[in-house]
């Protein structure tokens, strides 16, 4: 396997990349440095912990589409072929052929999932990736559908399949209201759908599988005018940083 790794300025100098917190950028570099010759990594969570980054950093890379995540937990650097060219005499094929068979290379050399190719045969630019709580996996399976009904079906299915219980008619109507509410405030249908699924994922992660908890999360985001999962994750990261700064100032006041 080749030991040298390169990075394309077209990717790391982009606004999408530079808008991320430095910790998320650092995690991206560490992941790319440890990827195999096809850009695959089988232990992203271990690397995230090893370099001292938070789970939100990994999730932000998913939301910003810098990494693609498979249900097996393996990830791949989306722009790997843009970053790196490896000579054939040094190239070693990835061990993760099953995952590799799920993606294709776009004309731009970026990876995308086969299931997300457009009808015209050109791969779609958008990937929705599996989150730890499998929220993103459900999104990825349903990408390409633009109707409100399909989005709601995805939400309903995820709700019932992940321990929230049988979906009551009032709850299903509430989800429809939430979808429409976020869209009226300026979110795209895709973003609104992702916000609801992300709230469900948070409830699962915190073992609070009930609609009341999800509803409280969505109300909080509505009050803060969040219109995408990216905005939620960036704000969460900001709150962690502000808390750390406050703790540092308190320790300094105590003479530490």
Automatic annotation (TrEMBL):
Against Pfam families, the record matches this protein to: DnaB_2 (PF07261)
SUPFAM superfamilies documented for this protein:
DnaD domain-like
Which InterPro entries does the record cross-reference, listed alphabetically? DnaB/C_C, DnaD-like_sf
Enumerate the spans annotated as DnaB/C C-terminal domain. Answer: 157-232
Family the UniProt entry places it in: Belongs to the DnaB/DnaD family.
Name of the protein this chain belongs to: DnaD domain protein
Q: Which organism is it from?
A: Enterococcus faecalis (Streptococcus faecalis)
Q: What is the lineage of its organism?
A: Bacteria, Bacillati, Bacillota, Bacilli, Lactobacillales
């Amino acid at each position: 396997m080749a030991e040298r790794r390169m990075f394309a300025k077209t990717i790391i100098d982009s606004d999408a990349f530079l808008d991320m917190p430095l910790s998320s950028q650092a995690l991206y570099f560490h992941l790319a440095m440890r990827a195999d010759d096809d850009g695959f990594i089988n232990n992203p969570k271990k690397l995230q912990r090893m370099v001292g980054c938070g789970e939100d950093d990994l999730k932000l890379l998913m939301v910003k589409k810098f990494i693609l995540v498979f249900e097996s937990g393996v990830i791949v650097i989306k722009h790997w072929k843009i970053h790196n060219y490896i000579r054939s005499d040094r190239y070693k094929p990835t061990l993760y052929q099953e995952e590799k068979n799920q993606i294709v290379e776009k004309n731009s050399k970026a990876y995308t999932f086969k299931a997300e190719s457009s009808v015209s045969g050109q791969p779609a630019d958008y990937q929705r990736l599996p989150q730890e709580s499998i929220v993103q996996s459900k999104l990825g399976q349903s990408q390409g559908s633009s109707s409100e009904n399909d989005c709601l079906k995805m939400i309903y299915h995820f709700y019932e399949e992940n321990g929230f219980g049988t979906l009551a008619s009032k709850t299903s109507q509430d989800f429809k209201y939430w979808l429409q509410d976020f869209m009226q405030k300026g979110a795209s249908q895709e973003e609104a759908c992702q916000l609801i699924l992300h709230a469900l994922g948070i409830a699962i992660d915190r073992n609070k599988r009930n609609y009341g908890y999800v509803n409280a999360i969505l109300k909080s985001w509505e009050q803060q005018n969040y219109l995408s999962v990216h905005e939620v994750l960036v704000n969460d990261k900001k709150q962690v940083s502000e808390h750390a700064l406050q703790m540092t100032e308190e320790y300094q006041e105590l003479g530490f």
